[in-house]
Amino acid sequence: MAYQIRTKLLILLCFLCAQHTEAQKVYTFPIQQFGMDRFFNTSKLIAPVFKIQGDSIESYQGFGVEPKGPLPKFPVKLPKFESINDTGYTFLYSKVSKKALNGYTAVLVANYSRRSLPAILYVDHNNNFDFTDDGRPDTFYLNLQYLDIAIKNPDNPKQKVVFRLSRFDFLKDFQFKRMADQLFNRFSGTKKFVGTTYSFHEQRFNIRKVNCVVNGDSFTLALEDVNYNGLYNDPGIDRILLSAYKDEVISTDYAFPINKKKSITYFERNFKSYEVIRIDSFGEEIQFKYDPAKQANRQLLEGWRVPNIKFTDANGNKQKLRWYQNKPVYVYFWNREAEGFEEDTAALRMIQEKFCPMIKIIAMNYGDNPKTMHSYVEVNHVYYVCGVATKTLIQRYQIEQVPFGFLLGKKNKLVKKGVRPSEVLRMLENGEIQSW
User: Roughly what angle, to the nearest 10 degrees, separates helices 421-429 and 341-355?
Assistant: First the structure.
């Protein structure tokens, strides 16, 4: 007995030491690449090109609103052109420079007409409407799919916003281009819009990301420059974003605000809180540490009722979690690509065969095609309830990755979270799960 007590004390001491060591460790990650969220990939933002008329260009502001009067015009200085067919100008928005008019930097576009010559883009980096003193222009060659252009702070080149410009396909999106043409022709003042086909599809990089492996976990962390000023640590504006390891960054799922300097910024992952020590202004590095003393806010708490689930099962029937509140329930989120899928499925089958109807299994599939999930249930003769989990449901349950399980007692009160099927099976075999 004394030996067993000493062994348990030693294990506890080792655990506490490991927790203390982990809490003291500072993680530093250099961030070397831009990230793309779903809005970057789905955006159809247009950088409209207007034809140069005379020796001045008209400002770009209030698009979509009828101007109250004539828009300001600014005299420009043009470079000496050779082999140029058509000349126009567009605007790119950022808050990198305070000299930019309403945040818009003018860009001269030579050969916008997509004929046999590449388009030449002169970015007015110093915002003086002189296109001859900004260094070498950027060339959009005919065989390029896109061209990346950076607008930088002249006083600090690290402060920058990068734009990806591409062309709209001649043979696609006819309705969209027709509608865009009508809008730009109506709301562009006296500027002569050359058409969406001859303008540019604009995408803005404002996310920098890094893949992290810390504290027995792995995830992708991103910094979001919300106001497009080339800085990634503006208090109350910019955000920290988290996603599954090497997965797409989605800014609406797991976002954490950067707090003011006098308050500590935290982000949470797998129900653990991490204190942010430093974020590089230009998004090139982040430092943080695990804080075991701070309870994560984004989690379901043990002893509390979990949100009710309304879902459709594999047979197309409507189901509700609260229908099964008079017995223990194991809610398991899964998909066929998840780690340990085969082992978990075998354990679920054993639970169903040996302990049904004492406990109810609800297996919620997230990520597979519903038809594929239905076929899997039919072919493999799955008798426990299988349902389709929506993104909204995943967010309500604060699940960051599957597989993940919740063991519930009566009235759907949470008993244990993060429990795998094999552990539930062991608890049932040992008599640890009764009626509760």
Answer: 30
